[in-house]
Amino acid sequence: MNHGILLLLTDHARDPVLNAFALPGGFIAVHSGLLLAAQSESELASVLAHEIGHVAQRHIARMIGQQKQNSMIQLASIVLGALAGVSRVGGDAAMATMMGGTGLAIQRQLNFSRDAEREADRVGLQILRDGGFDTSGMVAFFGRLQSASRGFGDAVPPYLLTHPLTTERIADIQARIRDQRYKQRADNPDFQLIRARVRLLQNNTSQGIRDAQAYFESQLRQNTKMQIMVSKYGLAYAAYLQRSYDKAEGLLQEARAASQPMVPSILFTNLDIDIKLAKKQGAQALKEADAARKQFPLSRVVAHQYADALIEGQRNDVAVAYLRDQAQLYRHEVAVQDLLAKAYAAQGKQALQHMALAESYVLQGSLPAALEQLGIARKAPDATFYDQAMIDARERDLKEQWKDEMKETKGRG
Ligand SMILES: [Zn+2]
Q1: Is residue 380 a part of any domain in this protein?
Q2: Total Cβ atoms within 10 A of residue 320
Q3: Are strands 27-30 and 20-23 parallel, antiparallel or unpaired?
Q4: What is the pLDDT of residue 77?
Q5: I need a labelling partner for 331 at 20 to 30 A (CA). Which of 106, 174, 176, 210 fits?
Q6: Which residues contact 343 (CB under 8 A, 6 or more apart)?
Q7: Distance CA 176, CA 163 (A)
Q8: Three-state secondary structure along 371-406?
Q9: Which position has the higher pLDDT, 326 or 153?
Q10: Which of these is catalytic: 51, 117, 134, 308?
């Protein structure tokens, strides 16, 4: 039995709708809208803790026992498929909307009983406290949502539809934390930097970026060190998205200056490398990415940037060796396979490029596209006898998998 909890929070979960929900299989989906509405880590953690409460108490599993199991599993696979699709097309708004719609469809099926909600609140508070967060964050956030909900009219966020913030519920939570000592908790500055980034990613149309810029400018007027750092970072990222790379560099310098004497954030480093890569300053990007991967050995973003910088700097042999290593260590990362394909393409190795793309599609759950890539790889003029044998074996595997998947789908109907 797998009790792991996987948090689906990527650049691609951009949906301005305020929502979070637990899914079958221990997944918890968080919309970017929630991240922006939460004003502290404790507030965000309180919603997550509540959803983890549903998972920990096996509310979904118990519901599945009562409902048709097949329809639930099918729903879960649709959601995961949609997420994979969104991450593939990146900024495609239509796909993102579809995902939002699918999430809503799932959530309607996952309407928990009032008892289950109360239990999730109780367990969630315990989780929140054990995690070292400020438990009053739950009351503060829910209280603010409650007063805001009066202004929503017909556009009540889905989270509030499934989690009505009745006075009774808030009083219940308040009673639970009454005996606890107030726990002051300083947020990691990265939390606010991530929110600035999400604000831009959520709507990266030119109008969306201008709106975010206006917001950051207004925040600057608060004139606290933290606000200056976060707003300058937001403005730097906005300039980067607008391809004003020199301006982005200058603003990032100002954000960094305002962050002293705090520990330098990895988000500054990430943006710095992205700017260098965009400016085609391969050598400089490589130097910084190499230093960053030593400073932040666990960061996956830095690992990807390092590989990208190697390719940009035309160190393709090193890039391929590094990425093949990474592919062994991180077998489920689509980005590693995509970068490997890019490195092979830079080397002019067509068969290997399409074999890597096939693996990328497999990881995204798209077997037909993977088989198509294998077909292209087989016909590549540089496909060696050895490559052909690998392609044949992989193709047999995938066709077998595909057949099983089709059987399962039919069995469900
Ligand atoms: Zn709930």
Answers
A1: yes
A2: 22
A3: antiparallel
A4: 55
A5: 106
A6: 307, 310, 311, 316, 319, 320, 323
A7: 18
A8: HHHHHHHHHCCCCCHHHHHHHHHHHHHHHHHHHHHH
A9: 326
A10: 51
Q: Where are the beta strands (DSSP E) in 77-131?
A: none
Residue 99 scores a pLDDT above 50: no
Q: How far apart are CA 171 and CA 180, in angstroms?
A: 15
| Residue 51 annotated as catalytic | yes
Name the band, by pLDDT with cuts 50, 70 and 90, for residue 364. Answer: confident
Alpha carbon of 74 to ligand 1 centroid (Å): 21
DSSP 3-state percent helix, strand, coil across the chain (nearest 5): 70, 5, 25
Q: Is residue 58 over pLDDT 70? A: yes
pLDDT at 5 (0 to 100): 39
At residue 225, does pLDDT exceed 70? Answer: yes
What gap in Å lies between CA 345 and CA 357, rounded to an integer?
A: 11
How many domains would you assign to the chain? 2
Quickly state the pLDDT bin for 11 (edges 50, 70, 90): very low
Q: Which of 125, 146, 177 is the last residue of a domain?
A: 177
Cα 51 to middle of ligand 1, angstroms: 6
- CA dist list (Å): 353 to 64, 210, 332, 375: 43, 38, 18, 12
Higher pLDDT, 288 or 264: 288
- Residues facing residue 30 across a β-bridge: 20
Q: Which residues pair with 6 in a beta bridge?
A: 27
* 157 DSSP 8-state letter: -
Amino acid in position 50: H
Range of the domain at 167: 6-177
In a domain, 289, yes or no: no
Predicted confidence at residue 16, as pLDDT, reads 61
Q: Catalytic one among 15, 117, 121, 134?
A: 121
Cβ pair 324, 340 in contact under 8 A? yes
Could you confirm whether 405 is annotated as catalytic? no
Q: How far is the CA of 295 from the centre of ligand 1 (A)?
A: 39
Q: Which residues of 26-61 are buried (b: 16+ CB within 10 A; e: fewer)?
A: bbbbbbbbbbebbbbbbbbbbbbbbbbbbbbbebbe
Record the tokens describing residue 183, joined without a space.
């726990």
Is 255 among the domain residues?
no
For residues 230 and 196, is the Cβ–Cβ distance under 8 A? yes
30 within 8 A of 103, measured Cβ to Cβ: no
**Which residue would you say has higher pLDDT here, 293 or 264?**
293
Is 378 part of a structural domain of the chain? yes
Answer whether 279's CB lies under 8 Å from 247's CB: no
